[in-house]
């Protein structure tokens, strides 16, 4: 039987501070009704003190404890984020130090909201080759660190959070079955953090012009996201000869309820099969998919057909088809 990479545990971490729609209405010209009707978001979590690696450390410590895994036994860490602790060293590096994963090597992966599925697909390859036995994939973002709370087009959407999974080899037919990943750099100007990299290094001018914050052209991003997220989800079903009856769960990126609905409709799925927690956490970027798995873990059964789908800045998008590997 073929060796595949199975998710053998999932754990999340969310900061304790809550930023509600009513709280935001005191900061910018918006309202609970306006935000809810357009996005489905009611509140989001904000990490006031600490870095992305601190959220990741909490999630990973919980994951290792839950799965009975020694930190020294982890071989590799793939950490998806657009809010690293530093330009370098990698946040994966910092995370390994904070959690005692002293034998692991790791790297950061930047694919914005598609980061976790990129990371999952990447980590799965290292398992499938037989080279590694334990790979941790992390999706974490402290979006509050790059959000302009005077810009109502972005500040209502994003929150902070982290989710992590452990991948281990299996030959029982569960695990990652297939993935389709896409990107189109022509979309970069529609959703971008303009300054802080080598194209526009930090300067008094970039700070004054608020260029270190996320900039988004909402209508363009929405249009691309609705089309591409739905298309790639339908494509992976077709490629693997899955009907809507065969799919037990859709795990969609939590950016906007209307995008989620469009994707589910394209796949022919009822709402009962769609994981949704956007109302509680907003868009945690690379964190949304593993946080969904964590929230719904108790409802998942071994052998469940699950499709994870995302769309992110860059543009990046894709879908992963996996069979769930355990009963909670």
Structural class: alpha/beta
What is the CATH topology assignment of the largest domain? Peroxisomal Thiolase, Chain A, domain 1
Q: Could you spell the SSE succession in H and E letters?
A: EEHHEHEHEHEHEEEHEHEHHHEE
Residue share in β-strands: 15-25%
Low-pLDDT runs of 5+ residues are none
Rg measurement, Å = 19 Å
Q: How many structural domains can be distinguished in the coordinates?
A: 2
Q: Quick one: how many beta strands?
A: 13
Overall pLDDT confidence: 97
Gross CATH architecture of the largest domain: 3-Layer(aba) Sandwich
Q: Mind telling me the CATH superfamily name of the largest domain?
A: Thiolase/Chalcone synthase
User: Whole-Å distance between the termini?
Assistant: 24 Å
Instruction: Going across the biggest sheet, name each strand in turn.
Output: 1-7-6-4-5
Gross geometry = globular
How many helices does DSSP assign? 11
The CATH first-level class of the largest domain comes to Alpha Beta
Main beta sheet: strand number and arrangement? 5 strands, mixed
Helix content: 25-40%
Can you describe this structure?
It is globular and about 60 Å long. The strands form four sheets. The chain has a five-stranded mixed sheet with strand order 1-7-6-4-5, with helices on both faces. Helix 4 links the parallel strand 4 (about 75-80) and strand 5 (about 105-110). The protein folds into two domains: about 5-170, 3-Layer(aba) Sandwich (Peroxisomal Thiolase, Chain A, domain 1), CATH 3.40.47.10; about 175-325, Thiolase/Chalcone synthase (Peroxisomal Thiolase, Chain A, domain 1), CATH 3.40.47. The chain contains eleven helices and 13 strands. The two termini are about 25 Å apart. Helices cover about 35% and strands about 25% of the residues. Helix 8 runs parallel beside helix 9. By secondary structure, the protein is an alpha/beta fold.
């Amino acid at each position: 039987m073929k060796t595949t990479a199975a998710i053998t545990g999932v754990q999340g971490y969310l900061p304790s501070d809550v930023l509600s729609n009513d709280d935001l209405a005191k900061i910018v010209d918006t309202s609970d009704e306006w935000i809810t009707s357009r996005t489905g978001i009611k509140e989001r979590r904000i990490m006031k003190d600490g870095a992305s690696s601190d959220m990741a450390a909490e999630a990973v410590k919980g994951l290792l404890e839950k799965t009975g895994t020694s930190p020294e036994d982890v071989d590799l860490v793939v950490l998806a984020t657009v809010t690293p602790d530093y330009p370098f060293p990698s946040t994966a590096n910092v995370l390994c130090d904070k959690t005692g994963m002293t034998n692991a090597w790791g790297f950061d992966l930047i694919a914005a909201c598609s980061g976790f599925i990129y990371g999952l697909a990447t980590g799965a390859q290292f398992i499938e080759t037989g080279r590694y036995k334990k790979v941790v994939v992390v999706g974490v973002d402290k979006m509050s660190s790059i959000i302009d709370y005077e810009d109502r087009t972005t500040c209502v959407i994003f929150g902070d959070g982290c989710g992590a999974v452990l991948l281990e080899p299996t030959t029982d037919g569960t695990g990652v079955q297939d993935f389709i990943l896409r990107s189109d750099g022509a979309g970069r100007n529609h959703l971008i953090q303009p300054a802080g990299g080598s194209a526009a290094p930090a300067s008094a001018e970039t700070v004054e012009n608020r260029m270190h914050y996320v900039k988004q052209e909402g209508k363009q991003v929405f249009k691309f996201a609705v089309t591409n997220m739905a298309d790639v989800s339908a494509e992976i079903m077709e490629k693997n000869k899955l009907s809507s009856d065969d799919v037990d769960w859709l795990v969609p990126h939590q950016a906007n309820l209307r995008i989620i609905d469009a994707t589910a409709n394209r796949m022919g799925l009822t709402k009962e099969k769609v994981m949704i927690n956007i109302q509680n956490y907003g868009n945690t970027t690379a964190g949304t998919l593993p946080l969904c798995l964590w929230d719904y873990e108790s409802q998942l059964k071994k052998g469940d057909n699950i499709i994870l789908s995302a769309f992110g800045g860059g543009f990046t998008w894709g879908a992963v088809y996996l069979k769930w590997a355990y009963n909670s």
